[in-house]
Write a structure and sequence with these properties.
213 residues; alpha/beta; TIM Barrel; 7 helices; 30% helix; binds D-xylitol-5-phosphate; binds zinc ion; Ribulose-phosphate 3-epimerase; D-ribulose-phosphate 3-epimerase activity; cobalt; manganese; zinc
Length: 213
């Protein structure tokens, strides 16, 4: 199980120190939540944030675009140093085209669905993407409660395509990560379960040991 730490709940005034703590914490990826105030009712940051983060960590930057027109911003986000670009199936634009644009720019492509979107809608794109991101909460805010029903989507996808990389995002904590792991999830995004906790290393270890239960 890989852990991708969401910086959404970080103290942005001291982001460098936060990333340094994440680098030492024993996690695997850094998850960057990009929100535009249209696709979701919250606003975060743009490509310049990725550019500033890039030299601060060796970990892959796992960029989650919660924006209405992802195609407009693929190039600036890849140029800034994103490794994975995940966009939403529900956003505007032809998903197959968005995936090939991401690949053409040299990044890995992920596709995501909100909790209410049926998993079957992803089927036409599974062979094209490097990763599927299943939302465990309505996108927009950290610290929400994980919707266990969304694990059914993971089971369906793993049965259909066992080698497909599956990431889950929203509400992951030490109390539910074992069930999430059993469903077949490969990467867990964790925000409030790590960032904002007194000790990031201890928080990552707690998640890892709980995942093995
Ligand atoms: C929600 C974001 C998630 C979330 C993770 O819109 O995509 O990455 O903030 O934070 P927690 O783990 O606190 O739900
Ligand atoms: Zn996210």
């Amino acid at each position: 199980m890989r852990i991708s730490v969401s910086i959404l709940g970080a103290d942005f005034a001291r982001l460098g120190e936060e990333v340094e703590q994440i680098n030492q914490a024993g996690s695997d990826w850094i998850h960057v939540d990009v929100m535009d105030g249209h696709f979701v009712p919250n606003i975060t940051f743009g490509p310049n944030m990725v550019k500033s983060l890039r030299p601060m960590t060796k970990q892959p930057l796992d960029v989650h675009l919660m924006i209405t027109e992802p195609q407009r911003f693929l190039q600036p986000f890849v140029k800034a140093g994103s490794d994975y670009i995940t966009f939403h199936l529900e956003a505007e634009g032809n998903p197959a085209q968005t995936i090939s644009m991401i690949h053409g720019l040299g990044a890995k492509a992920g596709i995501s669905v909100r909790p209410g979107t049926p998993v079957e809608e992803l089927f036409p794109f599974l062979q094209m993407v490097d990763m599927v991101l299943i939302m465990g909460v309505e996108p927009g805010f950290g610290g929400q409660k994980f919707n266990m029903d969304t694990l059914q989507k993971v089971r369906v996808l793993k049965q259909k395509l066992p080698e497909l990389l599956i990431e889950i995002d929203g509400g992951v904590n030490a109390g539910n990560i074992a069930e999430i792991a059993h469903a077949g999830v490969d990467i867990c995004v964790a925000g409030s379960a790590i960032v904002g906790q007194p000790n990031y290393t201890a928080a990552v270890s707690a998640l890892r040991s709980a995942a093995q239960q």
